[in-house]
Fold each of these.
Amino acid sequence: MKTSYTTHTTGILDRWMRFLGAILVVALMVPAVAFSQTYANPATVNLGTAGNFVILAETGISTTGTTAITGDIGVSPAAATYITGFGLNALDTTHTFTASSLVTGNIYASNYAPPTPTKMTTAVGDMGTAYTTAAGRPSNASELYTGDLTGQTLTRGVYKWGTGVTIGTGGVTISGSATDVWIFQIAQNLTVASGAIVHLSGGALASNIFWQVAGQVNLNTTAQMEGIILCQTQIAMTNGATLEGRALAQTAVTLIGNTITPPAAAPVIILPTVSSTVPANADTGVALNKQITATFSTAMNASTISASTFTLMQGTTSVLGVVSYTGTIATFAPASDLLPSTIYTVTITTGAMDTAGNALASNYVWSFTTGAIVTAVENGLAPQEFALFQNYPNPFNPSTRIQYSLEKAGMVSLKVYNLLGLEVATLVNGRQEAGSYTVPFGINTGTFGLSSGVYFYRLEAGSFVSTKKLILMK
């Protein structure tokens, strides 16, 4: 029995060892995968005037070999004597900058003629502010891959290390769209190995990648770097290394036959707008069965044009209706006729987006006033005269009705004034056809904001003018 028990348990252990070994083999065969955790897109880091330079340093900029720089470079508070290896030309006629055959751009130093000293002091200050801003952003991930990014793919976010970071010859991929932002917070050195490449995929832009490094940045032979380097100490590039971005160092930048170009600018995003509406803002005399339309500057995502993003309000009361979208036009069709002589407010919110996912920059709001009710045009004939009748009831609370007749079509104005002659309400202001009209005045036209007392209502229709008195009693 003892021997059988030993053999049985040994067999079980053998099977477990073979199973674990197989798991280990599979694990070793699986390649490194992308870090695909999705984080909220961080805000970009504002470089201020430091963003006007591809190289900015406080203590000096030096080069040997065949270097090619596109963009402006500058030093401060160090003087021009600390820009070495560039074969600086004579100062321009203003003595504010100089040039070099190695630089397609201007070269600035703190000891050049005004306003250059102030320009450089401001730029260096902005560089420090940008460094502090980048360092202070809350991180999404810490100590990822223990600081070795070789072969990894990183999506947008803020990444933090309390150690140094290395990118080996296998390079690293920065993957995301042209609006995504990456911030790398590195407490020690950043080392990019010889031949290592920082790949951009999916539309990612160097202008949206920020390397905030407390230690030294070392870009070794033929390394290809992408992004804005905000370094608290020195940035050193060895032979053949390239940078698409900016080298902003709080000490020095040293070059050996390198190529530096500014980052590609982020695409200009044109946000959609509401280009026109029917009725237009402040229109009066709007038909009670009117559908409200808004025309956009570009094609919109139809799923974002809905009753929650396109609303019609009468005061604080929502108006029911059906929202539709075709081409570039959104339509709100009220479920029933609107109230006469009433102010309505229409809002299209920032929830409305174009087909690229860009939202309106802000809510678009406009208002209009409906027309009065035509109560009678008997036997197809218009009234034989212009007339304004006494309101009924009078005195009134909370509402009354004003009647008038028009002999012929024309522009009509019906307004209410207080005893001081100040206009307190516009009931009609627009063209009307010949006919008899009834206009309610009261709860729907804001009389609750008026005090009790005597008011006058005045009708103007062409050369016809008539005024009558009404009394509000609360």
Note: The radius of gyration is 37 Å.
Amino acid sequence: MGSGNWSTDVYSANRAYQDAHNISAFQYSDGGATSVHPDLDPKGVALRESRDSDEHPDSLAVSVLFDVTGSMGTVPRTLQTRLPDLLGLLLRKGYAANPQIMFGAIGDAHCDRAPLQVGQFESDNRMDDDLGRILLEGGGGGQMKESYELAMYFMARHTAIDCYERRGRRGYLFMIGDELAYPVVRRRQVRDVIGDDLREDVPLAELVDELRRRWDVYFIIPAGAYHTGDPHLSGFWRDLLGQNVLFLDDLDAVCETIALTVGLGEDAIDLDEGLAHLDEFGSAAGPAVSKALTPLSRDRGGSVAVSPAPSGLRGRGRGAASSGARDDSGRDRRDDGRSRRDDDGRVGWDERDARNGRDAHDGRGSGNRRL
């Protein structure tokens, strides 16, 4: 997957046709479906891949996974209506040359029929098709926990991304929700939902450490959800992800928030430039985006996505592990004395680190992926 190019004209024409014929953008779910769409079923999937190609030589993996239980069921509908804003900022403003976006949905493996749904990494309008196939189950167990850990397990062990494997640049993973993850990944649920046979459960903290080797992980908490104001919620995710927890006052601003986070992390913009782009686009999302991202920008000295990674992982550019120290020029310094960028502007990268950090499940080649 990942071929083709996004077209806002195609998107608009499709929306106009749906509106004229009273067709839901989520016709699979709204049409009475009660199970995961076959194209989004994670069971038996070896890998979801974001790969370079002649058409997209500098692929950047972006995954957006959202809770579809309870009050969070409106999130995918909002995302679908705002897709042109997300792609417009990423592409027209040059935040990322070749973004490949995967959408997915999270439920509760203890009680839901669709606890995990995962699309493909797409560069064109097929990402909209994947959104339309999501089952909006609206379930959940009512105990302030959903199976985010199962989604993170899939992302850690069933994705392969060339931005990391070839260039040492971690992908971006955004989860949107208002509840906690379960404290362990249960081997029985992994077997039932994904198909892997594990010898034992995986502790959540261990899984997150593994996941962050290849992904910059963010958790977005939108206003108006059931548990948004609960301090236990914010404390839980901050303990796992640090400052990568974003509080969003306006759900309608979710696509702009994701786009600017990517732009900041790719060093394509600073926050003021990103907010100016929103004004230029006529977007009303500026205040909400500014409030969500200002703490990140401030805490990280203006760079949003240089998130901590497990020790021993050296990457390149945005998302690479850093000692946290800066020299007099403001550049990051490595423990081995290298700056973030060499004097010729290139980023230092040891290919051995990619091989050492690669999960055993990654594999190579598109033949491993179930289409």
Note: The chain has one domain: 8-304.
